[in-house]
Amino acid sequence: MGYIIDADWNVINIYEGKKLIKKENAMVLRNLLSNEIIEIGDGCTEKLKENINMLAINFSENRKINSFEDFEVRIFKLLETNNIKNFKFVNRYNLKKQDNIEMISEIDFLNSLIEEENEVYIELRKKEIIIFFVKEQKIEIIRKGYVNILSYINSYFYLNHNCTLNTKKTIDLLNKISKNIEVKSVICRSYEDGSDVLIKVEDFELLLKPLKNLKEEVNTKIVKYKNIKFNNDYEEVFKYVS
Known about the structure:
Layout lengths: L2 E6 L2 E6 L2 E7 L1 E5 L5 E4 L3 H4 L6 E5 L1 E2 L2 E2 L2 H14 L5 E5 L11 E3 H8 L6 E5 L4 E5 L4 E5 L3 H15 L2 E2 L2 H12 L6 E6 L5 E5 L3 H19 L5 E3 L1 H7 L4
Parallel strand pairs: 1-9, 9-10, 11-17
Antiparallel strand pairs: 1-2, 2-3, 4-5, 4-6, 7-8, 11-12, 12-13, 14-15, 15-16
């Protein structure tokens, strides 16, 4: 059985059959002056902490390949690292046929993930939500995804408390929400003086409101369907959002 490789902005997903078996960092780091490659993939996060002038490149964004050179560099590094010989790349980018990279269409890929009885498949991605109507073989896209959800959560703090969360703390907070843990307080960074401040979350419903609105936007499109399959990311984020 071959593998399917699917790029999602700063992450590359590797599928074997219906199963997502691995996620890797999609980034390529280049020297800002020489353009030489410094690091590829999962090691980029630590490398970025070093005092080097670097350009961090995610080769795909908003259904476009921003850099074909880095696209090939990253894909072939992934194949080498994971000893993958037989694979297909999910073509969400209107790419022309490549001699060295076999493609699979987005619809064929989504069909490979569903069960026979599924009527709809919903996929939360970094910057979009995919709604795949199986019988109609049609895709609808909501241009809001995981990154937007993090932004919504952060907006609660800067709109109501004039402070912000860094990305890691925002992800940690979303993970608690996903586990149905009610958050009483959060340490944020003040916009006024940059100090850490303890913020009491006095209105948890207001914090969750953007997530509820997004879930409702999805639900209005699938209201007449019964057998719906969600990818793991969607289930985890929205499991306790009513």
